[in-house]
Amino acid sequence: MFDRLEISVVPSGPRFRAHLRFLVNGEDLVIGAVGAGGRGLFAVDGPASGGLGPLRGTGEALRVELGEPECSGGCCGFLSVVVQRFGGVAQWSDWQVPYGEVAPPELHFDADRYDAELARMGAGSGRLAAS
Question: Between β-strands 89-96 and 79-86, what pairing exists: parallel, antiparallel or unpaired?
Answer without folding.
Answer: antiparallel
